[in-house]
Amino acid sequence: MAPPQRLVTEVERLGAIVSVAALVIVVITVGRLSYSALVTVPAGDELRVGLLALEDAQDAVMGTDSLLRAYLATGDPYFVDRATERAPEIAAAEGAMLANLDLPGVFPRVLELVAAQRDWQAGWVGQVASVPPQDVAAFVARGDALMRDYRAASTAARSALLDAIESLDGSVRLLQRSLIVVTALVAGAALMVALRGRRRLLEHVVAPVDGLLASVRGIGEGRLTPPEPVSGSAELVALRDGLAQMTIALRGQHEETAAQAERLQVRTERLRTILIMTREIAGSLNTRYVIDATVQAAVAVTDGRVLLWLVLEDGSALELAHDSDRGQLSPMEEDCPLAVGVVGRSARYGQISRGDPEAGEDPAVAVPMVVGARVIGVVECWDSPDGEVDGQRLSSVEMLATLAGSAIEASRLHAATERLSEFDPLTQLANRRRLGVDLDRAVADAKRHSSPMSMIILDLDHFKELNDRYGHQQGDVVLQEVAAVLRGAVRDGQTAYRWGGEEFAVLVPHRGPDDAVTLAERLRVRVEEDFRRGDKQLLTASFGVAGLPEHAGDGEALLSEADRALYAAKNAGRNRVERAG
Question: Which residue windows are coiled coil (predicted)?
Answer without folding.
Answer: none
